[in-house]
Amino acid sequence: KLAKLRSELLNGPGGKSAGSKDAGRGFDVTKSGDTRIGLVGFPSVGKSTLLTTLTGTRSEAAAYEFTTLTCIPGTMKYKGARIQVLDLPGIIEGAAEGKGRGRQVISTARTCNLILIVLDAGKPLTHKKIIEAELFSFGIRINQVPPNIKIVKKEAGGIGYQEMTPQTKGMNAEVCRMVLKEFKISCAEVILREDVTVDQFIDVIEGNRSYMPVLYVFNKIDSITIEELDILDQMPNYVPISSRDKWNMEELMEEIWNKCNMLRIYTKPKGQIPDYEEPVILHSAKNPTVEEFCNRIHKSLMNSFSHAWVWGRSAKHQPQRVGKDHELMDEDVVQIVKKAG
After folding, report:
1. Neighbouring residues of 292: CB distance < 8 A, sequence distance ≥ 6
2. Residues 324, 312 contacting (CB under 8 angstroms)
3. With contact defined as beta carbons under 8 Å apart, do 104 and 86 qualify?
4. In the 8-state DSSP scheme, what is residue 333?
5. Is the peptide bond before 213 cis (omega within 30 degrees of 0)?
6. Which residues 6+ apart lie within 8 Å of 341 measured at CB?
7. Contacts 24+ apart (CB under 8 A), 94-99
8. 29-66 burial by CB neighbour count: b if 16+ within 10 A, else e?
9. CA 287 to chain centre
10. For the whole model, what pTM was predicted?
11. Judging by DSSP bridges, how do beta strands 262-267 and 332-338 pair with one another?
12. Which of these, 200, 91, 95, 190, lies nearest to 144 by C-alpha position?
């Protein structure tokens, strides 16, 4: 019940989601490039300097807070991929309730493939907790995957409850019924395929959560000692940098690449050498198939697809003739052959 009331507080009594008109629209920025990254953080932590260092786009930076008042996009190239970086205005505590245009900032952050939470290494670590809480209350789940829960609504027959694994975090048939009753669901089939909390179960019922990868970027490391850096080093998903002195930028770019699960696939026109300048960028946690590669180029390509020739690590011999279900690997070269006639 508390979760439902909290959601109504944030989104209005109609349960309007973060993307609706009432939620405070995000900044209108046209999506471009292969991947989109948002810089989120408190005012004056060095987001604008980081954008300028990464992309060359000049974003106003000054010694006072709230220098950036709107969303400033820039584009950087890395390993042939065009990555759009958004410098978002600084958020403050209470942003999810709309303070300081916070809802607009977080609405735009939801459209990104990756969020970089930029923190000042010289400021207390409580800032990290505050930003995490703001993103959580706005429906963004940081570095999590959607829970393996299946809920099928039915016309009649009451609540069916099944556990595939033992539940140790508070879920049981009675809790399930109480939660579904709060959401006015009286007939449904619920299957839990992993050990989940009640909050995760509510997230699945609400169905408007964003599960996003997040990287913590500690800026201004030139202002702290080695001992303090060693303490920060114990954190997961973290990169220390100095955007002013351009320290550790290469590691940051590599971490962004890995977090977005990006793969490069090169195209080869018949009778010509492969195009190594403009790879096709695919996002996939597991190896993508030739079909996904074709759909990335154009949706209608599969209608005339006959087979493909593949050079690279995924081929057993060079080249290998493959069908649409062949799994590709990073830096493979693919030549598509269409049906005759």
Report:
1. 282, 284
2. no
3. no
4. E
5. no
6. none
7. 94/134, 95/134, 95/138, 96/10, 96/134, 96/135, 96/137, 96/138, 97/9, 97/10, 98/24
8. beeebbbbbbbbbbebbbbbbbbbbbbeeebebeeeee
9. 18
10. 0.77
11. parallel
12. 200
Of 51, 36, 54, 34, the C-alpha closest to 113 is 36
Give CA–CA dist 217/240, Å, rounded. 6
Torsion of CA 158, 159, 164, 170, to 10 degrees: -160
How many Å apart are CA 74 and CA 31, to the nearest integer? 11
**Token pair 């916070």 in the structure block, residue:** 102
Structure tokens at 124: 């207390």
* β-strand pairing of 81-87 with 72-78: antiparallel
Q: How big, in percent rounded to 5, are the helix, strand and coil portions of the chain?
A: 30, 30, 40
Contacts (Cβ under 8 Å, ≥6 apart) of 80 = 264, 276, 277, 278, 279, 281
The residues, ordered by sequence, that sit 6+ positions from 260 with a Cβ below 8 Å of its Cβ are 35, 37, 113, 114, 213, 283
* Tens-level pLDDT at each residue, the chain (341 residues): 666 666 655 554 444 444 444 444 556 677 777 888 888 888 877 778 888 888 877 766 655 555 556 778 888 888 888 888 888 877 776 655 666 566 777 778 888 888 888 888 878 788 888 888 888 888 888 888 888 888 888 888 888 888 888 888 888 888 888 888 888 888 888 888 988 888 888 888 888 888 888 888 888 888 888 888 888 788 888 888 887 788 888 888 888 888 888 888 898 888 888 888 888 888 877 888 888 888 888 888 888 888 899 998 888 888 889 888 888 888 899 998 888 76
Per the listing, tokens 């829960």 go with 149
Pairing label, strands 305-311, 320-322: antiparallel
Q: Could you give the count of Cα atoms lying within 13 Å of 256 in the half-sphere of its Cβ?
A: 29
Amino acid at site 331: E
